[in-house]
Design a protein that fits this description.
This protein is an alpha/beta fold. Strands 9-8-7-6-5-2-1-10 form an eight-stranded parallel β-sheet. The chain has two domains: about 300 residues, Aldolase class I (TIM Barrel); about 80 residues, Immunoglobulin-like (Sandwich). The longest helix has 22 residues. It has 14 helices and 18 strands. The structure holds beta-D-galactopyranose (GAL). Beta-D-galactopyranose (GAL) binds next to loops. The site of beta-D-galactopyranose has 10 residues, from loops.
Length: about 400
């Protein structure tokens, strides 16, 4: 409700010419954005060619048709500003408009990256003092998504006395709001993704500054320790997330590093339970059938993309075992049991806690990872979970 009001307020701040365009635009990110981002695999090496190839591979792998439509270029595309302050791309990206046309021609959308500071995290040109100019540039290229990474702005904030945390935070919020207004003014719909690692309880104010998603944590990496730590830390954040505005525990590492099949599934399932943006970050040219089947599993995606947009809550935790659940729009319930522990074959009768999940004895269960219908289920359902594995069920009356 509040974000709808803010959207209206923002609309009235627009000029008549772009007002009509913005008004006609459908609301953005009504379900968590899905796509692929260059950072986790390519980091600073990403080029125009890699993005074109990623576009092709998203189609041939079936990822686009499974819902992964945003193709996001992360940091290191930026060149220098000219005498008029207009930012140019660097040699790795000779023609961003042509690249956007290519990506759009494949039925995908193109995302880009910047910082409210004068420098990005990788030390490239940021948007400080050039917000409108940059937003206009993105719109002229046909950009559909902006990840806005605090980074260089931190040194700007730190010019204020460290004791003046309040002012520093105000400055940070204003910087995000400024870019959001600049985007609105272009009249081109762009998903606005805040990346400031969860500072200042960002989930409490990000929708007010136009955020469609906001990182809740520092950077992910392709180790199960980091992934499970981030996932578990999301407990309690469900109430801040919903259609148009999502908690973002960072991009997927599915298929990266040395993650096992069970770890990839646990990662994917947890992010789906969290109604997280699903931004794959793997090497698409080396997709294995196992990784493809995890990323494109229709049942896990349906949980993530459920229209109700209700993020999961943790309903049970004992040692390394946790149970999370979320209600779904058709009255079903998604329930996940995670074994974050190291025991090789973790086997014991833990109750499924169906009542706490909003389900009940006798509901039917569909096992997302095996694809099997388990029939009627009750709290005593016996199953085994190897180390780092999880059970993901869709329960229906
Ligand atoms: C980090 C950010 C990463 C990536 C990187 C690029 O601050 O969290 O996701 O964008 O900067 O330099």
């Amino acid at each position: 409700m509040r974000s709808a009001l803010l959207y209206l307020v923002a609309l009235f701040a627009l000029t008549p010419s772009n007002l009509a365009q913005a008004q006609s635009a459908a609301p953005l990110a009504t379900t968590p954005p899905m796509g692929w981002n260059s950072w986790n695999w390519f980091a600073t090496t990403v080029t125009d060619k890699d993005i074109r190839q990623a576009a092709d591979l998203m189609i041939s792998s079936g990822m686009r048709d499974a819902g992964y439509v945003y193709l996001n270029i992360d940091d290191t595309w930026e060149g220098q500003r000219d005498a008029q302050g207009v930012l140019h791309t660097n040699d790795k990206f000779p023609d961003m408009k042509a690249l956007a046309d290519y990506v759009h021609g494949k039925g995908l959308k193109l995302g880009i990256y910047s910082s409210p500071g004068n420098k990005t995290c990788a030390g490239f040109e940021g948007s400080l003092g050039h917000e409108q100019q940059d937003a206009d540039l993105y719109a002229s290229w046909g950009i559909d998504y902006l990840k806005y990474d605090l980074c260089g702005f931190r040194s700007y904030m730190n010019q204020l006395a460290p004791s003046d945390k309040l002012k520093q935070n105000e400055l940070m919020r204003a910087a995000y709001e400024k870019m959001h207004k600049a985007i609105l003014k272009t009249g081109r719909p762009m998903v606005f993704s805040l990346c400031q690692y969860g500072f200042d309880s960002v989930w409490q104010w990000a929708p007010e500054v136009g955020g469609n998603s906001w990182r809740t944590t520092g950077d992910i990496n392709p180790t199960f320790d980091r992934i499970s730590l981030i996932g578990r830390e999301q407990a309690g954040l469900a109430k801040f997330s919903g259609p148009g505005h999502w908690n973002d525990p960072d991009m997927l590492e599915v298929g990266n590093g040395k993650l096992t099949q069970d770890e990839n599934r646990t990662h994917m399932g947890m992010w789906a339970m969290l109604a997280s943006p699903l931004l794959a970050g793997n090497n698409l040219s080396k997709l294995t059938p196992e990784v493809t089947s995890i990323l494109t599993n229709r049942d896990v995606i349906a949980i993530d993309q459920d229209a109700l947009g209700k993020q999961a809550d943790r309903i049970y935790a004992e040692g390394p075992v946790e149970i999370w659940s979320r209600p779904l729009s058709n009255g079903d319930v998604a329930l996940a049991v995670f074994n974050f522990g190291e025991d090789e074959t973790f086997l014991r009768g833990i109750s499924l806690h169906l009542d706490q999940a909003g389900a009940a004895h006798g509901w039917k269960a569909h096992d997302v990872w095996s694809g099997r219908n388990l029939g009627k289920i009750d709290n005593d359902y016996k199953f085994s979970l190897p180390r780092h594995a999880s059970l993901l069920l869709r329960l229906s009356r």
